Amino acid sequence: MLEFAILGLLQEAPMHGYELRKELTAKLGAIRAAISYGSLYPTLRRLQAAGWITEAAETPATAEEVPALTSRRGRVVYTITAEGKERFAQLIAQAGPETYDDTGFGVHFAFFARTDQATRLRILEGRRRKIEERREGLRDVLGRAAERLDAYTLELQRHGLDACEREVRWLEELIANERSGRAPTVPRSGTTGGRGENDSPPPPGESRTKRP
Amino acid sequence: MLEFAILGLLQEAPMHGYELRKELTAKLGAIRAAISYGSLYPTLRRLQAAGWITEAAETPATAEEVPALTSRRGRVVYTITAEGKERFAQLIAQAGPETYDDTGFGVHFAFFARTDQATRLRILEGRRRKIEERREGLRDVLGRAAERLDAYTLELQRHGLDACEREVRWLEELIANERSGRAPTVPRSGTTGGRGENDSPPPPGESRTKRP
DNA sequence: GTGCGATGTATCGGTCCGATACATCGCGGC
DNA sequence: GCCGCGATGTATCGGACCGATACATCGCAC
Predict the structure, then answer these.
(1) 3-class SS of residue A41
(2) What is the number of alpha carbons within 13 Å of residue A133 lying toward its C-beta?
(3) What CATH number is given to the structural domain containing B11?
(4) Which residue, A100, A173, B85, B173, shows the most beta carbons closer than 10 Å to its own?
């Protein structure tokens, strides 16, 4: 999962670890807490060993300009390689069962702009199927085993069931949009925040790269 | 987390591993997938080593009745000890930061029937605070960094923001109920499933033990 | 009689987290 | 002038948990 996210992000621009974590947090903030350095750095090491990324000490501006007096601990900038891009494409193509769990789906969705439409559709439908199964499980428990459980546990299941139904509806909208080639914008019913007129959806293009 | 859940469940009845997993899945189905044996068995080992639980080969009915012909691999039944109950109470009392993340909160909530009211309130408020923070983070990203992100990432954030707002409202209801001493039932607006008149909320008592 | 799904116990490698350590930089307050 | 403090930045270590895998029994349907 982390591997996938890193390869995805580094395609937008080379970055050093700290920056990577910040971007990752911004992009995935909806689905998981900030990722830990205890996972990030070893993963970067692993990706470098595999040849998907290269690491390079940051260039000290114009080299002569900066006096080596302070000798600041160089930031290590990571850049994705051609093999890394291939690897990313390959990871997108093979959507296994782990692609449909909460984290896996979220991460894949976050990089849908780099995913072809057929795969997007496949993933959305796989996720829907998975959530429908969870929903049925919760309905079963609430129906059959309700008397065995205390009021708090039941309330938890009801809340979970609610979330499932809501997500299925969300996915349905996204799937419908996907099929009709529209942008991934789901109509919101005023409940969200306040003003809701700042959307202006861009077309679902694949390109989104920072160019200096 | 697993330790907490196991100690909580074993207070309802002694169980063997497979059964434990099934009950755990039923009780926590709303918040996480089925737990893995790769975590369950080592954890049981650890709990036994610490003295919180005892393990015993299942008694073969009336001993003489059953012929040892088949010599079925005895199921190992785990029973919580007095120290284990103490440990559980202690784990409830000290609600650290990990009590408020998604999984931690869910597991604690599932055992609210064994938690005193003051602690319930504390945990609910801690969770609310945490979700409010996440919500603010998402609003920031959607407000400030919107133009940097693609349409899919934005849609993901919006969906997450929605979920946050919904959960905060849910928690508000639960907190209000808790303060007024009512049962943990949140009014549902028909959206859930179908019939919604089978509630009959029991009083929020602490007792819920299967007695044979 | 035989295959097959549920029941049941168990291990292993790998991913990820949380705590911790350490160093630099810029800024505001004293 | 200088001191602390929060942001920036890299890194490791132990432990929790997962997914795959292995292996054995039981009951039932075909």
Answers:
(1) helix
(2) 9
(3) 1.10.10.10
(4) A100
The count of structural domains within chain B is 2
Output the CA–CA distances (angstroms, integers) from residue A94 to A90, A91, A98, in the order listed: 6, 6, 11
The CA distance from A168 to B79, in Å, is 40
> Nearest 5°: phi and psi at A51?
90, 10
Q: How many residues does chain B have?
A: 212
* Each residue's pLDDT tens digit, A19-74: 999 999 999 999 999 999 999 999 999 999 999 999 987 755 444 444 444 445 57
Chain D positions with any atom < 7 A from a protein CB:
8-14, 16-21, 24-26
Q: Is A192 on the interface with B (CB under 8 A)?
A: yes
Contact flag A110-B153 (C-beta cutoff 8 Å) = yes
Residues A43 and A104 in one domain: yes
What Å distances lie between residue A68 and A55, A63, A73, A150, B199, CA to CA?
22, 9, 11, 67, 73
B69 touches strand D (CB under 7 A): no
Which two structure tokens, joined as six digits, stand for B94? Answer: 């000290």
User: Which structural domain range is residue A33 located in?
Assistant: 1-59+74-113
d(CA A122, CA A108): 12
Looking across all nucleic acid strands, the nucleotide with the smallest C1' to CA distance from residue A36 is: C17
> Which amino acid, residue A205?
G
Interatomic CA distance for residues B24 and B22, integer angstroms: 5
User: Is residue A193 one of the residues assigned to a domain?
Assistant: no
> Tens digit of pLDDT for each residue in A153-204?
999 999 999 999 999 999 999 999 999 877 777 777 655 444 444 444 444 4
Of A33, A141, A155, nearest to B29 by CB-CB distance is A141
Same domain? For A102 and A132 the reply is no
Q: Report CB contact under 8 Å: B30, A170.
A: no
The closest CB to that of A159, out of B30, B150, B156, belongs to B30
Interface residue B75 vs chain A (CB under 8 A): no
